[in-house]
Batch of 3 targets.
Target 1
Amino acid sequence: MSDLPRLWLRHESRPTERRAPLVPRDAARLVSQGVQITVEESPQRVFPLAEYVRAGCATAPAGSWARAPEDHHVLGLKELPPVPGPLRHRHVYFGHAYKGQQGARELLGRFTAGGGALLDLEYLTDDDGRRLAAFGYWAGYLGAALAVLHRRGTLRTPLRSLHRRELDALLRDDRAGATALVIGALGRSGRGACDALETAGIEPVRWDLAETRTLDRDALLDHDILVNTVLVTRPVRPFLTPEDLDAPGRRLSVVVDVTCDVGSDCNVLPLYDAVTDWAHPVRRLRGGDRPLDLIALDNLPSLLPAEASHSFSAELWPHLPGLGAHSRPWSRCLRVFGEAVARQEAGSGGQGAGAAPAAGADTTGADGEEALRVR
């Protein structure tokens, strides 16, 4: 029993983040095994606090994780608030700090200053490098769905969270079809994107490794919608550049970047310098008689918070007891964090924390290196 972790599920400070990495049903399973769980109050979380109480969890005020005992692992999803500065706990969430993303250097510095550690969920993998818990399917599904609705002129803003049956009813509206290309179609996100497009009556063109090795930009530009679901672990030749958007005869009118690797040298769509948001999910990149719009939301699955949370939690919860015993997947997460901090302290700061280590199912990119991977 002493090896079991103590978990602290924090409130998400981002107002549009309604997901939870651990749902009440799975919290109950952990409690039955002897895991102690404290859940913070949260006004926007899709699951009421009372459901966690019935599961056997203790409760705490929103934002009180900073005062939690040091032996607790703080569990979350998205970015931490700026206060407190030094971070003394081990935090389990998506930190986005290993590929030079905006704020990466500062975040790693906060952990160094406080003596804590980041156990980044993106790097929670099995021995073969495959991710053990991911929101990828729903990210792809929502990204493609928003592209279809926007192109039809039926996307209502600001965005709001909903249930899948509502979204699918909107997608099945029998309007004029479009052509759509999904890059990374064999990964989780790619499969989700393809499913959403098929729900909308669009048979997507599916590209994966073979097509990205010798990418045909003219063919890429000859689709109405592009959905990118590919992450890279080191810089490769971009799929599109700003110059490509001015190519004569471009048909492409909507680009969805599910990956949102903005600010990193690993970005395969260096077309923009900031993500979009729920109030303004679409940004115009080209105007005139051939407009081209971008959708780049970095919390797409929160638009379907219940479905996405249940799916993710089902994958994550069996691995949470291993936090206390430092199981192999969590030890890898800790090692990746230590390597990132070491690179930063050594001054290899071209990418903030340096090039990211491989995580997930690595695939071969256009340069012949194992650089591309599907989400």
Target 2
Amino acid sequence: MTSIWMLGGYQTDFARNWHREGRDFADLTTEAVTETCAAAGIGPDAVEVIHVANAFGQLFTGQGHLGAMPATVIDDLWGIPATRHEAACASGGTALLAAMADLEAGRYDVALVLGVELEKTVPGDQAAAYLGAAAWTGHEGEQAKYMWPFMFAEMADEYDRRYGLDDAHLRRIGEINFANARVNPKAQTRNWTELSFTDDDARNPLVEGRLRRLDCSQITDGAAGVILVSDRYRTAHPQAAPWAQVTGWGHTTAGLSLESKLGRRHEGPYLLPHLRKAITDAMSRARVELNDVDGMEIHDCFSMSEYLTIDHLGLTEPGRSYQAVDNGDIERDGRLPINPSGGLLGGGHPVGASGIRMLLDAAAQVSGRAGETQVENASTFGTVNFGGSTATCVALVCTSAAP
């Protein structure tokens, strides 16, 4: 089976409001495709297959069939097979897995994987309602004003019942990630000031349950793209200089409802055993243990989602994620830096693009391209991307590319 190499990639500025600029998916896709190919050192005419991640295009813009958008705006992509992938916030992760499978099967040698999302076309309350479509519609969260803050507040309450939870640790996660975002030139919140990571109801108001404003990721416009290639491509192009090798993957899917996931206590000590399995599968396939990993980009759509992922990574025993927060383990100079980019909380969360952006940042880390967010001497990085209340989980491991 071929190895998978990340040849290069690109992220748009997540602080932009494309609707306010009078731009649409055609403009977003044009920039993302053009700059992704340029970063990889290839022309669009070298692409053999395309996988497009998008979760909510029809709801926010009325535009579906986004697999065809690259060929619509880039003549060299006319006739190239393309598919759109939707798995809520894990759309990017599943698009990456599909592209990897194409290369591993030997069908193609060069894959463009693109995540695109436009969410600022409507007011915030309407945007939150659209995003709620990734829950089990009509079966859960009917009392919620904001579906996903409500769901992750429920998750926090269940974690608290099982293990105990001090909200101060959630606030600290937000503080770390927003601080990391300040030095990321493409982070949505890099210029935000006078933030309060406290329980001050005026400066950091409650949104749902125990979750406050700065416990929640943003409504974001943006795109991210990567070029993946096979061993066969590298043999034919010895001058190619990949940023990273993707060495491991994990993929699990559970039912839509949060209640169904939280009810599986018999499956072990973890709150979400299927999330733990996706992570351990990725590490097993990469033939690494957590101590071999230099950092992670994980799915902090809420501070609680990062908190619960910390122990599922194995950084602490189940129920003791607070230890990694208190000890500084998750900070950029800690034992396992988490979200040095700023993650979703500070960096922004254009839903379909997030999983691809995570791999892009992980590859930048192991190739020494991460700028002021760089983790010193990073050679192995992981990602954890999930959709809904973790209904779809995708984990990846990448390492520095051999010379």
Target 3
Amino acid sequence: MRRRTVIGSAGALAAAALAPKGADAQARDLTVVSWGGAYQDAQREVYFRPFMAQSGQRLLEETWDGGVGVLRAKIQSGANTWDVVQVESEELLIGTEEGLFERLDWNAIGGRDAYIPQAVSDFGVGAILYSFVLAWDRGRVREAPRGWADFFDTARIPGRRALRKGPKTTLEVALLADGVAPGEVYRVLGTDAGLDRAFRKLDAIKANLAWWERGSQPAQWLASGEVALTNAYNGRIAAANANDSRDFGIQWSQNLYTLDSWVIMKGSPNRQKALDFLRFVGQPQVQAQLPPRIPYGVTSKAANALIPREVLQQLPTAPANAESALQIDDKFWLDNLDRLNTRFNAWVSR
């Protein structure tokens, strides 16, 4: 699903409506693409509007649901209109290998030393740190799940379950639920026997599984009672509690932890505008305003000192939350994503 939003004055909106189609690409506005929902709502207030106010530039925003194939198609079409895109870790690696992104000018965006080490690469700059957590509605599920094993225990906690559609995170959850220690997950998943083990575990609840594809869906499905348990982005569940008065629980035990990055699409005519945007959103005083609105970790080294203590404790980076976390292995998914997508899609369709 994509949504395009124009952020600007009424006069600017009118001018955009009257602009001829197919106008010179060099003259088009900077377009930034993110994940929609409560997260993009927070970005709009912290990043997009303040950037426009400071720079005097207009910004268009769109949403996407991920997938390196989408990025490939954009570049191959010769008519790409996206400039800055937030991507997942393996999308950064695959897109870098395939030449889908512009090399970053780190001097133009604040310098490598301004960021935590895992946020720094030649073609991407870290945007947020976040976790896939186990979530439920406390009003409907009386016994709180203790971990992923309970996700598969439909006798202890009846009802449908939801997982993000795709092999990434799904296979890790299956092995964690089957007793594999976090430090052993990718070693096991790298074997044929380990893959078979993960799919056998999923077979046990396949009839009770729903698959979400947008980050907003888990909270919506919990609220409607469509599912009893789901994995979800930690920030979306916290935002539903804060903004929609929900009473959703979060189980941090063995959460799956990772980082998203900003990239500039190859051949963007707005490269300098994109660098200006990345410099702005990388400032510690700007990044520090995001976690109070949605509790994701940020990547500027100096930002955490500016975030209230009670907010820091809600982040994936808090020691209590990170203690048993599994960091998603980018290299594993770089090497195996296409192959495991094929197997996963065949399994789902059976």
